[in-house]
Protein 1
Amino acid sequence: MKGHSPDRAIVPADARGSASVGVTSGTRSGLRGLAGAWRAYRRDRSSLIALVFLLMVAGASLLAPAIAPHDPSDAVTFRHAAPMSEGLVLGADGDGRDVLSRLLWGGRISLMVAVLPTLLALALSLVIGIAAGYFGRWSDHVAMRILDMVFAFPLVLLAIVIASMLSPGILTVTVAIMVALTPYITRLVRTATQSVKGLPFIEAAHAAGAGELAIVTRYVLPNVLAPALVYATTLMGFMMVVGAGLSFLGLGTQPPDADWGVMVADGRAVLRKAPHVTIIPGVMIILVSLSFAFVGDGLRDALDPRRRHR
Amino acid sequence: MGWFIAGRLLAAIPVLFGVSVVVFTLLHFAPGDVASVLAGPMASEAIKEAIRESLGLNRPLPVQFLKWLGNLLHGDFGTSLVYKRPVAEFIFEKFFNTALMAVSGALLACMIGITIGIFAASKAHSLFDRVTMAVTMVVGSTPLFWLGLILVLLFALTWRVFPATGMTSPVGGGGFLDVVRHLVLPAVAAAMPSAAIISRTARACMIETLGQNYIRVARAKGLRRNLILRKHAFRNALPPIATVCGLELAFLLTGVFFVEVVFAWPGLGNALYYAIIAHDIPTVQAAVLLIALSFVVINLAVDVLNAWLDPRIRVSTARQGGR
Amino acid sequence: MSNAFTNFRRLTLICLLAVAGILLGTARSPAHAQGTLIWALPAGASVLDPHVTCGWLSRGVTQQVFESFVQQDLSRLHDETPAPLVPRLAESWDISEDGRVYTFNLRSGVRFHDGTPFDAEAVKFNFDRFMDTEAPHFSELAQAYFMFAGGAADIESYRIVDAMTFEVTLKARNNEWIRSTLEDCPTLFFVSPAAIEEFGNDAIPLHPVGTGPFKFVEREEGVKIVLERNDDYWGRKAKLDQVIYRRLEEPATRLNALLAGEANLIQEPPWDEIEGLQEEGFVYSENRNPPWLWYLIFNFKNPTMQDVRVRKAINMAIDREGIVREITRNTATPAYGMLSRGTHAHDPDYQGLGYDPEGARQLLAEAGYPDGLEIDFDIPQYGYGELVEKWIQRDLKKVGITLNLNKMEWLAYLDKWNAGMPEELEMNEIGWGQQIPGWLGLIARCDRHPWDGSNVGWYCNPKADEFFKKALQAGDEAESAALYAQANDVVMGEDVAFAPLYHYYNPLVLHPSVKGFVNSTANWWDLSTVWIEE
């Protein structure tokens, strides 16, 4: 079963082949460890390219207010679904809005939906997972029973239910993804914590008279963080796809704002006449989601000393 | 094994109860008012009040919940506020339609994924392997709804070989072949990303088994490559592959909602979406419960299948006593 | 197990062959079977009980199944407004001199779809349903609907004169009473008494049994409603075998269904596609005299908006021609008055306040806002974005008004809209109307402030009310039209209580095989004249 933790398909495509992360023995935190990890990461060409691409997309999206040629929600031309031309590098959509500008502005939301809720879930999972894994007993029981309940909700369903209470919007998507991911990451953190807990250096720390809190923050957390972060990174790509899907359904980003899912949805009305309006944001979703997967792979290899020297 | 299954099913009951309480409570705090939905835009307050009264929406929340729960135990899901009709009369059909697409998608994904995976593994690191793996990487990251739109554009609007909407032809439809014809595009759209994931898993597992000692021995004994592939390697790589297939099915159960919207498929996804817009709480309840229940059942089935395929797991899960 | 791989390969092969077979064997589906109209609805129709329903979509379905005493002539071209009343279940009707007593001579030999004969008893049974609290099948819900806009508030009494004669007495003369019973919220359609007795008030929506040219067959929730021709219809029988209403909410999905032959009439096509579809041979149909319009409502409780110069300036600042040309793609025409084109009171020559940004700026300066002002505007949130609202925002910016758009989810919006505007809000909007000009009174009369009506801007001018009252009692249509014109002059000319935007043409696109369809002046259509020609 190596390499296929059941998490994988429930939050399905997530993994794209990288859900399981072994806990490294020993504490390889600190600058020297990071530098080593970076050296190892750099060696993996595809991961490096993916990282550069991601940074470029993120940079361009962040700079959208400065570099977008037009207002993303205002019609710039009366030629609806205009083809690519000078001044409209990627053409216009069915409402005459500049596709490039919408892509740049939409990238902000789409990237945020991929990253923010996953990081929030990671933070939440670290707290719950370490509490459950390290302290065990009733905290473990309570946490696991609650998580069981969330497990019974497929992510999409959860998002639909949350959207129906909060009313659709970015907040809904963020909350839904965060809640849905927490059990998965928590389970990983919990398992990792349990295996770290049994390692000799923890016992040594106990013997040296370190307090529980100190042990958790100084020894457990650094060792649990690496695999959890890797897992979270591999999830981000899939969350971008899910977030776009929720927007496509009308549960996510609301007009006049647009993320890439909304752009695909808007493109439907002119699918025959101007397929580029639908295709371009779709391709961006694929490329960015792919990049997250590669970056996750690279991170995993870089942070795992056993793999590093392969 | 029987105890294992029974235990897991029992454990699901409090989970489902919790789910229903949460959903029931939360939906009542949703914005908007069911009476406004039912009465229409311009209706007076008197009309809305009459509607609330007739639906029992003026009673306290716990009373409404207990009544609902009591009915549920008698197999009564309540009456749809919008359609004025028992939810049980139509919700199972919607569920079946969704399951039909999810199961077909998952089957298709398994067949395509395993085939590609095995071929790629048998020619590991060849050009074929590298190209297919790159393709699966891309397809695995493709949004279902986007794929669906592209398929509609090509196969329904441009080449007109498959229908673009619905599950049956509006006129004279409903036969087996008619449904299959409508099913092809959505099922393919649903299957592709899953097939990509399965193929990667299948490839990895096959390569791992092919590298093991007993295969090397078999090869040294001069057994034919095909025989080795199917008799030894595939069999041993099957449990993890089956697991991934099962989990992809679990995903597709709600993942196909995205495809349903593109193809106007009369499934649970569309029904749930409309019900939420219209604040049709009994319908939402039933849909959510059905999905949660089948989700639990599929996950359980995957565990059982795994235990059955791989005796080592059976022993270890038995020892763990459940989860 | 040992053969798992071989079996698996065989299975794959079989499946591939099956797919290929399906592809080849049935690639050509019967695009349009003989005589079936497949109508793509843009949203779900509500329940099919005409007495407890609001909404144009369900009215479009019940129109085919049920009938009333009379109906507007829906077979007329849309250029003749309003559609004259023609007999249906009443062969003729007399109105007393004082306009209070209506005597309906019922058509004999008519049966409901379930075989129940139609007579004065059946009519009384239907009236009892919403009027007589003692009746066994009285429905409070139906009463609430009919009191609101179904004409029940006007009724003093009703009685059976003889088996085929029914009489209704009004409290006071109301020229528009009979037309008001034909509106959509609710409709005075006659439902089979036997069916109501059998299924009860709760389940009757699932068994709509009327006397109309089509019979209800089935309804698949959220998917479709199926009707079939009533071969025993008393009048000219319908030509179609079947009508299927499909619910396809996405404009793109409706378009796909039309292109792929899975629908042959779509409502609300994507505006951008209309031209292309016509080039491909599809038929575009519109109603140039829709009985409703889209308008902004000013809040008379708000200090800023109490200044008529501000209200005028907003009207003058909006480039309506631009909106209908660039946004609605000419599926609408600008509105300057508040009388919709679908009523007899509409005056095509009415001028109103035209586009004049310079004049608007001047008025604002006079009103004490030389440096501009800020206005809050509540708007509902649609799927397709707020194109029109953003256009208005841009237009107002040009004259110095900063418009804040407060978007709200549709239901939340309606709840707030129905309650009337709070003092701090400057304006909101809605699209609404009826085939009777008296509708303007519903949104402008002093006694129609919420919750007694839909005058949500708290406008009140007794002078206008006087015209509304007189119009209902006018001697003939010309006289009433003149009175409404005067009312409109007060509401729009003097007081500028609203900013009408445009009349929307309710666009439809038909497959060329659909023949005999007439786009009526109502928001619903008579499908008995339609046939499919291969």
Note: The mean pLDDT of chain A is 81.
Protein 2
Amino acid sequence: MALLDVSGISVSYGRVNALTDVSLQVNEGEIVTVLGANGAGKSTLLKAVLGAVPVKGGGITFADTDITHAAPHKRIGEGLVLVPEGRRILISLTVEENLRLGAHMRRDGTAIAREMDAIYARFSNLAERRNMLASCLSGGEQQMLAIGRAMMAKPRLMMLDEPSLGLSPLFVSKLFDLIRELNHDGLAVLLVEQNTGKALSVAHRATVLELGRVTMAGDPKALAADPALQAAYLGTGEASPA
Amino acid sequence: MLAQQIVNGLMLGAIYMLMAVAFTLAIGVLNFLNFSLPGLFMLGGMLAYGFITLGFPVIFAFAAALAAAALVSLLVERFAYRPMQGGDPEVPLVSSLGFLVLLENLMLIYFGSDQQAFPALVPDLNLRFGGLVIGIAQLGSLVLSVLLVLWLSWFLSSTSTGRCIRTVAESRDTAVLMGIDTGRLVPLLFIASALLAAIAGLLFAVNYQQVSPFMGEGVGFKGVAAMIVGGMGSIWGAVLGGLLIGLAEVLSITFIGADVVNITVYGLLLLILIVRPQGLIGRPATREKL
């Protein structure tokens, strides 16, 4: 049984269908990436898995529990967290308050303190600025803070929505190293990315969305070699990028 | 003479301060100018008066009045605020104003429109410092109000629930993505602001020994003025604004005359809006709140 099992979900905004009959699995210890053009429904898929948008049909199970209609805070409590698009750092809170916010549903104070120390040890930039407002962080630091905040919820599966967006190439490399490390430590990852090459290089499996439907799924190496995908997303084919 | 009036102004200001903080909680976090709050202020005073005249012990009367205000505030949340989600922010403003009119008229039916004399509960004991005379009730009210605001400020800055409230204040969408249960938090905020308003109403009744179904209007609107003078969305702004409005009111009664009170108070509001539209300690164009 997969850790996350999305089977045949549909989502619509008013009369516009954002997702149609989308299925996807993430197993324990896996990195799965979802690729697709802007507007293909990638962010909607993550929000539906989190419960921030309602699904019309199909079902979602997480860790053998049906969560199709559970509220977001219930799902996060089960260990399913989202690092949202655009990072969504709270700029009126300090760096440390942002981290603590990630643990707001937990009551195990000593474990929270230990994990916060571990996050500071990993991200020394955050440790130095722990009492400053999060608005003074650079884009890359904000992304680290967003990931640190998600880790504070003690996740089993972390969903990342376009984490490399707007980052310098150096930070993009650091980011994908970090995703690999977290995964190596046992975290399952569901990654939505525009940076198709990088995403395929870290993923164990990949799924391609087009206009809200799954059009391809499978081994990332095979997908990377697929001429249609190359043409559409890797920019090496002859067709113009989507 | 002047020192005495300043003391009196601060006492009155403490009540405006509680009202301004109640409004600030609602507008700072929920972006909702909750006009039922003056009604809840009135309920605090009127219901305490009602229970006392029915012969209940004072402590019970106070507790029942506060509980009733909290309960009514939950009704406001359920029927004026929640159904209007996603619409214009002005819509719940109008429906909450409906609650104010409803509450006033319900009290009017039962008690009539006259001022009622609230019994003197605190012994008429005055502390004298040099020429200053400070009533025990006045001093107690001021201390209680300040402690309440200090506690609230600590709660918002230092507890997990406080951080969640500030997150909702900054961005409701982000709060949902962070797993904050707004369905639990929003009613909590309605209860908190109702208690602040009702406690202000109780203190008003105890200090000035009079209650009426319309007692909330004057104080409520001055609470809104205090919030704007201090800076919308900032608790310390509400504190400063409340005390200033209280001082302005008492000093203008003493030195100019009772007829010009509203001119002074709302003139101050107008002046602030012209000179410093963001309020005394409000910051323009940031998302920072509370």
Note: The two ends of chain A are 35 Å apart (CA to CA).
